[in-house]
Structures are given as C-alpha cells and as structure tokens.
Specification:
- It contains three helices and eleven strands.
- It is of the alpha+beta class and 213 residues long.
- The protein has two domains: 1-20 and 188-213; 24-185, Galactose-binding domain-like (Jelly Rolls, Sandwich).
- The strands form two sheets. Strands 1, 3, 4, 6, 9 and 11 form a six-stranded antiparallel beta sheet that branches.
- Bound molecules: calcium ion (2 copies).
Length: 213
C-alpha cells in the first residue's frame, strides 16, 4: 500500500481500538454486593467489618456443594480490550472449621464462558488458599496460553463473555471466606503507551508525507 492511501482516520480507529471502550470491570464492594451472586453458600452477604479496604463479600459456605460466585453484568460482554491484561481478586479466610480440600474446582478457580465455549484457570493452584490473618491477592494473565486456549478460541470467548464465576471452596467443613477487589485490568500501561506512540508516529509520518508531496 502506498503511504498516500493511508488515512489518518484509519490510524485513529486503530488507536482507539487499543483503548478499552468502557471502564474496566471492578468490584471493590464499598457499599454492597455489586450484583455478585453465590451458589452453595449458607450465608452470602456484604459486610464492612473487614475488607481491603472495608467492604467485602462474606461467604459462609453450605456443605452440600462447592461455593461459587457469579459475576454481574459489568463483567460480561465484549472484553476483547482486556486480552493480555489481568484478572485478580483478594481473599481472606475468616473461618477455618474444616479440613483441607483440593479438587478440579477448588478455591480460586475462575471460569469464563463466552462464544459458545469456556475456559477455566486456578488462580490459587496446588490447593493454595487465602491467609487467615491478612488479605491475599490472587492474579493471572488474561492470555490464551495461561487459559490453555488457542488464540482463536480465546478471542471468541473474550468477544462475548456471557458469564464469569469464582470458586471459593477451600475446606471440607465450616469455612468462611472473605472476597474483595475482584477486577479485570487492561494491558499494562507501558505496552499500551508503546502502541499508542506507534499509532501517533504513523499519523505524524502521514502528515509529513502529505506536506512534502
Ligand atoms: Ca472493599
Ligand atoms: Ca485452587
């Protein structure tokens, strides 16, 4: 393609595609459960007696099934802009009246459904769980490789996320889990700045080319 056929409009479209189209999905539970739901929980409620900072999800799990949280609509839809970013949550084990539990879907397993398929990843692998004395941050990259998917499968999932769940089942028995700061963040800033800089350099080069033609 000759440089003169490049349109500044096209370059700006490329530039803006690199910037997330809406605020990054995040729940800090400052005042309520922010639309999160729980299955397998005997008690599931918002509390401000703890948190990082205060305001968190209090989950006293039932014993018949694993306790699973389901994300609200803010965490669904087209999340393509977050490819290469991260997903994370903070946890604290508030009640430890049970024995160690490790399974395919145990504490920290996040499932992302979308595009007619799904991917899951354990953010707390090897039976790990949260500290009982402080808030622990669990994080994973939002990449095809980390979630065991091909680039095409991963793109399909992120393009139309229909559901995200988080398992908070760490013990057999009377456990109580605290969850705070569930968030999805975009590509780390240096990479974004580099990409934006490249796009801007393209615009400048195009304008120079037009001027000297
Ligand atoms: Ca909080
Ligand atoms: Ca785990």
């Amino acid at each position: 393609m000759r440089p003169s056929t490049l349109s500044p409009v096209l370059l700006f479209v490329v530039l803006f595609r690199l910037v997330p189209s809406h605020a990054a999905p995040v729940s800090t539970f400052d005042t309520d459960t922010e639309g999160w739901l729980a299955a397998g929980a005997a008690t599931f409620e918002w509390r401000n007696t703890d948190g990082n900072p205060p305001g968190f999800l209090y989950i006293d799990n039932g014993e018949a099934q694993g306790a699973i949280l389901t994300a609200p609509v803010a965490f669904r839809g087209n999340l393509s802009a977050y490819n290469g970013g991260t997903i994370s949550f903070d946890g604290k084990m508030l009640g430890t009246g049970g024995s160690f539990y490790q399974a395919t879907v145990d504490y920290g397993v996040i499932t992302i459904q979308g595009g007619g398929t799904s991917a899951f990843l354990d953010l707390a692998p090897g039976g790990a769980t949260a500290s009982t004395t402080s808030w622990t941050t669990f994080s994973a990259p939002l990449t095809a490789a980390a979630w065991g998917k091909t680039d095409v499968q991963w793109a399909q999932i992120l393009a139309s996320v229909s559901n995200i769940t988080l398992s908070v089942e760490a013990l057999f028995g009377n456990e109580i889990q605290g969850i705070d700061n569930i968030r999805i963040t975009a590509v780390p800033a240096p990479a974004t700045v580099w990409l934006l800089g490249t796009a801007l350099a393209g615009v400048v080069a195009y304008r120079r080319h037009r001027r000297t033609r």
